[in-house]
Amino acid sequence: MTRAGTGKANLSESRINFSGWKFSINPREDWKQIYKDAWRMERDYFYDKNMHGVDWDKMYDKYLPLVDRVTTRNELNDVISRLIGELSALHTAARGGDLRSDNKNIQVASLGAETTRDEANGGYRIDYIYKVDPDYPNRKSVLDDPFLDVKEGDVITKVNGRDALSSIDIGELIRNEANKQVKLTIKRDNKSKDIIVKPQSNEFWLRYEDGNTATG
After folding, report:
1. Residue 196 covered by a domain
2. What Å distances lie between residue 173 and 37, 84, 110, 148, 151, CA to CA?
3. CA–CA dist 144, 152 (Å, integer)
4. Which domain holds residue 63?
5. Distance CA 34, CA 76 (A)
């Protein structure tokens, strides 16, 4: 703290050290307040004062009981997202907050495609490769590359030399491999080839852009 005045303040002598401050909170009470604040923000700042015809007070009461069942901040975000979803408005979401994690967390990765386990062909069949606006090539699926020549219908038989069918889901074979080089063995018409890709850390925006491309 420093005295008010016209002269230049010497903040180094007046700085308060907050590093030792600790606060005790009740997570459930905190989450309920966060839920209420999120509801209020939409009520007060949503562009349509009629709330798209939604009874906003009723929605508050509808989802409030779920807050009492929440056990993590992620679950609270899910409840708030469902609440906001009642407005049927684009560009509204709930994420972030006090998300706790530890060094045991496993980072998921994505090949930017939908696959199906194909026992007959010895791997995972590529059913669909996500498409994005060609004006944004840095957002496209790692498999959507003409130099790789990967097509829907091709089968991934190995991941880093390991048989793809050794796992119940291909995602298990690329976990913790986001943005790292991964070798895939691709089969087409009984011929195989190896390619190198870098799986993406999140396919949320891929799915989002794919939907916009399809409807746009």
Report:
1. yes
2. 41, 35, 10, 20, 20
3. 10
4. 27-85
5. 9
